[in-house]
Design a protein that fits this description.
single chain, alpha+beta, five-stranded antiparallel sheet, 14% strand, globular, binds iron/sulfur cluster
């Protein structure tokens, strides 16, 4: 499968969205995390916690086809310039109307990917999904990796394989992020969780980069979800 290109050689985001539309788990994970947010919004839908970004072509598609999104405006100038500096070059910071008004078919790639990013190993191979560890205290999915469906993993990997083929500079962004993760986890003597493209799950030892197979139920759980894990809701019963 290839991303179809339009006549001016830009990516077709309708096609991309339609092929990366699988929910992460069988549950609505927003219901799991929102109760812990003061605003009662899922954390990844609250710009106090996470500001989505869009590729330039994606922003063109969104602003032409929906009124859901606008460019992100931050009241505090310092924070705005900090995020402008941190975002990948050329990407546009955006915000939607709010989780009550979500239009699922117009969620951005960042909405569909969160909390995951494509992990690039020391040999520059995109080997699978790891997560934005900074959100471990807010994102329920990070503490419930065993709930991530294989269908979602395949859709994620297919999406980024093809995105990297068409936008090779994107891979460099995630390679850098993966290097930072190895440094951070190495310092903390933690292993990096990987939902591998081979369908299995592993922990990576940051120093040696060796892969240790692991049952995903054994991945670490973080508060407040660690406590909740021991008191599962009826709909979570295995
Ligand atoms: S991906 Fe994480 S932060 Fe976003 S709604 Fe699901 S649990 Fe909440
Ligand atoms: S578009 Fe939907 S999923 Fe994305 S940030 Fe807005 S409410 Fe959340």
């Amino acid at each position: 499968m290839l991303f179809p290109m339009s006549l001016n050689n830009s990516l077709d985001f309708r096609f991309i969205y339609d092929h990366f539309d699988t929910p992460i788990t069988g549950l609505d994970c927003g219901n799991k995390c929102a109760a812990f947010n003061q605003t009662l919004a899922p954390f990844c839908c609250d710009t106090h916690h996470a500001v989505p970004s869009a590729y330039p072509e994606e922003w063109e598609f969104l602003k032409t086809n929906t009124d859901l999104w606008r460019k992100w405006h931050n009241p505090t100038k310092d924070c705005a310039s900090h995020l402008d500096h941190e975002k990948p070059e050329g990407h546009i910071l955006i915000e939607c109307k709010g989780h009550q008004y979500c239009q699922r078919s117009f969620r951005s790639i960042t909405c569909r990917s969160f909390p995951f990013f494509p992990y690039i190993d020391h040999d520059n191979q995109f080997i699978g999904l790891s997560y934005y560890w900074q959100y471990a205290d807010r994102c329920w999915v990070i503490s419930n990796l065993h709930k991530v469906t294989m269908e979602y993993r395949i859709a994620f990997i297919t999406n980024y394989d093809l995105l990297f083929r068409h936008k090779s500079a994107e891979k460099d962004i995630y390679r850098y992020h993966s290097v930072v993760m190895r440094r951070v986890f190495g310092r903390k003597k933690m292993k990096i969780p990987i939902l591998h493209r081979d369908g299995k799950t592993y922990q990576i030892v940051p120093k040696s980069c060796s892969l240790i197979p692991v049952d995903p139920i054994c991945f670490p759980k973080y508060e407040p979800f660690k406590t909740v894990h021991n008191l599962p809701f009826p709909d979570e019963a295995e």
